[in-house]
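Supplementary Methods. Inverse-folding protocol.

Structures were first reduced to a discrete structure-token string of length 586. This string, shown here, constituted the complete conditioning input.
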């Protein structure tokens, strides 16, 4: 009894320990399960919260917005038509000047161009004076005989060249005859080959008339079959020819044999009918075609033979002409000989002229050279006079009133002709402002629209759209808006922000303007990218580039990478980074 009690106590203790371990495991697993299911919720509360919406297809009352810098409608480049050293710059960029106000002070030293021109004039005048001094006369040399010989050589060379040119022309004619004959022979050969091919094809068609007619072949096969059946039934002792079913003797009263004979006769008649209706007319037609093709082939063969004979005749004539020209000069050699003879004649004429009229010739040449030098002296004098007239005064004054927008020189610099030293915007000519917009935006505008100034209040400044032109840097995608700007407080260099246009238009992708961000690469939006996981959806940030097509006070129509299926982030509790995880506001 005692032993049983002890055993029961031990059993209860052991069973109690097992229950405790089991309960501990259940509690641990329960806690782990709870933490697992709620971990996603706990983590979500630590993520940035964003609000998002899909792009809408709606209407926007368009106002194109932009910013530009006021310029004068006309500018004036200050230049100096000589190289001069600048002593002082009397105005600076941004100064408002009056007509006649001193802009630059030049060094009093003459320009380098004027100094060089005077030096050149003195040198030319010295050369002209030297050429007027008396020259000694050389004695005449006797060269008349060589002149006569040179003239004869030129005449002979001209005759030889004329003969060579005629020979070359004749040779080309003979060669053209050979070429023409060969071309004719080639065409005749091609025509013969074509005729032969056509004849062969027609003969093949004629031979294959029966075998090419499936209906006739079928009738023949049926005839042979019916014939074989009949002959088998009639027996080998038949006295009639089995090839002529019409001549068969009437079989003894045997219905099967009578039917076999009738089938045989019908098959024969059908085959003959097809032959008479289809085979015979086609053979007759093709026979006519073959006869005509044979005639054509014979004519082509004759033409080919005649053409080959013409080639041989033309080649023989060419060979004979070339043989007759053996030893004759060609045109190039004759021309070279003539030129050599003319050169010799020119030398002889020059020598004879020198010998006969050396003094007159030299005097004439000297006069020509003297006249030319006199023209050079005159031109040099006119250049000096022109430079003296262009020499600027010590002070360079403005011809117009305006604002100095560029100063390109400093004291000590040397001017370059026609290079702008300063640029003066002529304020009295009015003001303009230019801004670049997308081509899609420009389509919503028209000339004459009034723009609203958005960065100044009660400024009294008016802007009117005067032109819409292509942007030279992006003619396919951008347009330049030019406005006339008026008002008492307008000044060159002033920055004005504006909005223009008031036109309703429907767009497929419209989002809140607050959702659009900008960086150095342009405009973009953040979208929510959904990724599924066992514990639920994960939302990450993605960046998409857009272009603003139109805007109103709150919304903007965009184009670019964005689609209607993108979930666009409109607000966030913290600045966002691409790829970061967020939670969607309830």
């Amino acid at each position: 009894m005692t032993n049983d009690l002890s055993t029961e106590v031990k059993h209860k203790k052991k069973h109690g320990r097992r229950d405790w371990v089991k309960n501990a495991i259940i509690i641990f697993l329960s806690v782990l399960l709870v933490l697992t299911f709620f971990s996603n919720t706990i983590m979500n509360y630590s993520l940035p919260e964003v609000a998002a919406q899909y792009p809408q297809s709606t209407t926007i009352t368009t106002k194109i917005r932009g910013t530009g810098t006021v310029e004068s409608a006309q500018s004036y480049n200050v230049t100096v038509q000589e190289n001069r050293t600048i002593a002082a710059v009397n105005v600076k960029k941004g100064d408002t000047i009056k007509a006649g106000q001193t802009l630059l002070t030049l060094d009093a030293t003459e320009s380098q161009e004027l100094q060089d021109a005077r030096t050149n004039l003195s040198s030319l005048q010295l050369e002209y004076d030297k050429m007027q001094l008396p020259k000694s006369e050389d004695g005449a040399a006797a060269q008349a005989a060589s002149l006569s010989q040179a003239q004869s050589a030129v005449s002979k060379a001209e005759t030889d060249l004329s003969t060579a040119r005629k020979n070359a022309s004749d040779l080309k004619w003979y060669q053209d005859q050979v070429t023409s004959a060969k071309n004719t022979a080639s065409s005749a050969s091609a025509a013969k080959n074509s005729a032969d091919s056509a004849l062969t094809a027609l003969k093949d068609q004629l031979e294959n008339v029966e075998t090419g007619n499936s209906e006739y072949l079928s009738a023949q096969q049926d005839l042979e079959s019916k014939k074989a059946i009949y002959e088998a039934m009639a027996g080998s002792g038949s006295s009639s020819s089995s090839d002529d079913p019409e001549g068969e003797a009437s079989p003894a009263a045997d219905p099967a044999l009578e039917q076999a004979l009738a089938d045989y006769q019908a098959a024969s008649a059908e085959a003959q009918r097809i032959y008479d209706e289809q085979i015979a007319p086609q053979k007759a037609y093709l026979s006519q075609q073959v006869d005509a093709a044979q005639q054509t082939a014979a004519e082509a063969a004759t033409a080919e033979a005649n053409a080959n004979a013409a080639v041989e005749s033309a080649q023989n004539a060419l060979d004979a002409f070339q043989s007759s020209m053996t030893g004759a000069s060609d045109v190039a050699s004759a021309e070279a000989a003539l030129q050599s003879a003319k050169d010799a004649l020119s030398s002889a004429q020059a020598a004879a002229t020198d010998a006969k009229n050396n003094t007159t010739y030299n005097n004439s040449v000297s006069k020509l050279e003297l006249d030319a030098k006199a023209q050079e002296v005159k031109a040099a004098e006119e250049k000096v006079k022109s430079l003296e007239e262009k020499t600027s005064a010590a002070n360079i004054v403005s011809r117009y009133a305006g604002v100095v927008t560029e100063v390109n020189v400093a004291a000590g610099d040397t001017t370059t002709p026609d290079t702008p030293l300063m640029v003066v915007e002529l304020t009295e000519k009015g003001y303009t402002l230019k801004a670049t917009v997308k081509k899609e935006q420009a389509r919503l505008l028209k000339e004459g629209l009034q723009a609203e100034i958005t960065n100044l209040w009660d400024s009294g400044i008016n802007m009117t759209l005067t032109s819409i032109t292509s942007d030279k840097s992006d003619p396919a995608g951008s347009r330049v808006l030019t406005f006339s700007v008026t008002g008492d407080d307008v000044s060159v260099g002033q920055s004005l922000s504006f909005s223009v246009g008031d036109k309703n238009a429907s767009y497929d992708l419209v989002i809140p303007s607050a959702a659009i961000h900008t960086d150095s690469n342009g405009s973009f939006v953040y979208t929510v990218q959904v990724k599924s996981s066992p514990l639920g959806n994960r939302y990450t940030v993605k960046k998409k580039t857009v272009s603003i097509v139109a805007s109103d006070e709150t919304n903007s129509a965009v184009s670019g990478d964005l689609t209607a299926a993108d979930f666009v982030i409109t607000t966030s509790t913290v600045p966002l980074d691409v790829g970061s995880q967020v939670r969607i506001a309830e």
